[in-house]
Amino acid sequence: MTQAPLSGRKILLIVGGGIAAYKALELVRLLKKAGSEVRTVLTAAGAEFVTPMSLAALTGQPVRQDLFLPEDETAMGHIELSRWADLVVVAPATAGLIAKAANGLADDLASTTLLATDKRVLLAPAMNVRMWEHPAVRANVERLKGFDGFHGAAVVGPDEGEMACGEFGPGRMAEPAAILAAIEGLLAGPGGRPLAERHAVVTAGPTFEPIDPVRGLTNRSSGKQGYAIAEALAALGAKVTLVSGPVALAAPAGVERVWVETAREMQAAVDAALNSEDGAADIAVMSAAVADWRVDGVASGKIKKAPGGPPSLSLIENPDILAGVSAAGKTRPKLVVGFAAETTDLEANARAKLSRKGCDWIVGNDVSEAVFGEESNTVTLFTRGGEAERWPRQSKAEVARKLAARIADHFRA
Asked: What is the pTM of this model?
């Protein structure tokens, strides 16, 4: 296994103001767990939402807040901070911080450090949807991204969803796991993006098979694990096509998402991705919970209650997408990974599915536990002829990163 991409890396985190500042605490935790050294600059507005003590406890370092402190400025504190880091991360990146950085304004420690840094900057914008869509903000973001000679900024997010103010749209700060993946991508050294020449197709979420215009057959999959896998593969450099059933999730940064509803639509989208103009896919991770059956004949109008009791539904099998991808001939990806959601006899059922479907690996998870919609998962990786790899319960983002690293190692071998 290769060294973790963030082991020993130095991250300077600037925490701007806004309700999303609470996510900075989780980002620090993830960075520390990944082996990074983290120092923080907390703006005056940021201190209205998170405390210096919280950041200091998580980083193990003093929190910098003021530009004019004698003990800092004898060593030119803002210069020292900007030179110390391997990467400067602004999360949340408010409209004000973005405007200052884009226009060379430096009136506090955060903006002065951003102007003084000679390192790459990653922005995680967070603001009201109307603010994010304002042409001045968008122009400032594009200006920062275009500063090629001065380490043009990278941007992760924002996500789309409900705001603290009650409005809906793009503007929510990217989740800490997504920011972590973006950091990993930016700091990857030689060999740090081992999937840069690979195309991965990932399926995620449920399918929905209509019974009539208002009802359908579906399942409880949230899509979180599949989306995390798509994000983790992209962080390692892969070109990722995410074929998604109906979920309430934002598309991961740098990932092409294709929306589908039914199993047959998912099959068509997967086939198209496997035969794209960019070349055949190298990797397929089929994590979607595809409905096994659909109704033979969807009613054109809503089915009403009748004195004779409930209607009789005739079901027919849906296409087996995993088996089809595993036997795709010339377009078969070099590595096909399936998922097995089981409630009993996990190992026996997963190994039987591995053999029956013809895929290379199966990720088995026991869904009799709390899994659907949760942030964590317990999985076992089954490979042909290999010992089962039982991974402890961990966040779905961590499961995804571990699986992506395992896939990268497979292609290095």
From this structure: 0.62
